[in-house]
Design goal:
This protein has one domain: Vaccinia Virus protein VP39 (Rossmann fold), CATH 3.40.50. It is α/β, with parallel strands linked by helices and about 180 residues long. It is built from 5 helices and 7 strands; from the N terminus they run H-E-E-H-E-E-H-E-H-H-E-E. A 7-stranded mixed sheet has the order 3-2-1-4-5-7-6. It is about 30% helix and about 25% strand.
Length: about 180
């Protein structure tokens, strides 16, 4: 199903990556790089793409370029040293990891001071769409993602400063957040 879902998600990822590309060139960590089909969209940055899935990394390797290194690693237990990255990208990954708060703590640790965190994800809104997320709760548990998902429920997010919030179609259900480590 992944390539099918990917077609739907590609325009959002273009928006996300254009925001990342607007930043000065730096060291970028993408957690949960998946099939990596978006990797060629990055310009300039030195990219470390990690994923827990060996199978996904094998697919991502087809899109690997000179500025990309791919590693099998758990985002909740990063093997990088403190203050190493200028940017961290979490694209449709924060709601699928076991412990999003632990992931955010690890991201905070490896980001340099003033480093930026970009999150693209569905965020359960306070309008009628929340009932769809609630209806999917059981189903989403089976597929290992959190359908009812709000960033404010994770204490570690308060360690970052929110710089920008971009609502995406449809109905602003998907959002891009840019945070900065103080
Ligand atoms: C829904 S896919 C998103 C892939 C890609 N970021 C994108 O936007 O297309 C989630 C990816 O995160 C990976 N993943 C899940 N838990 C992880 C973890 N704890 N650490 C690193 N990667 C993880 C999965 O293997 C999968 O490839």
């Amino acid at each position: 199903m992944y390539p099918l879902v990917d077609v739907f998600l590609k325009p959002q990822k273009r928006r996300l990556i254009s925001q990342v590309n607007a930043q000065p060139v730096g060291q970028l960590l993408e957690v949960g790089v998946g099939n990596g089909s978006h990797l060629p969209l990055y310009h300039g940055h030195h990219i470390s793409g990690i994923d827990t899935s060996e199978g996904m990394l094998a697919v991502a390797a087809r899109h690997q370029q000179f500025n990309v290194r791919l590693l099998q690693m758990n985002g909740e237990a990063l093997l990088f040293r403190d203050n190493q990255f200028d940017y961290v990208v979490l694209s449709h990954v924060i709601a699928v990891v076991d412990n999003p708060d632990q992931l955010l703590q690890e991201v905070f640790r490896v980001l340099k001071p003033q480093g930026k965190l970009f999150i693209l994800n569905h965020i359960t809104p306070n309008n009628w769409l929340q009932y769809i997320d609630r209806a999917f709760l059981l189903f989403s548990g089976l597929l290992h993602f959190k359908s009812v998902f709000r960033l404010g429920q994770f204490p570690a997010i308060s360690r970052f400063n929110l710089l920008q919030e971009t609502s995406l179609q449809p109905w602003g259900y998907f959002k891009i957040y840019t945070y900065q480590k103080p």
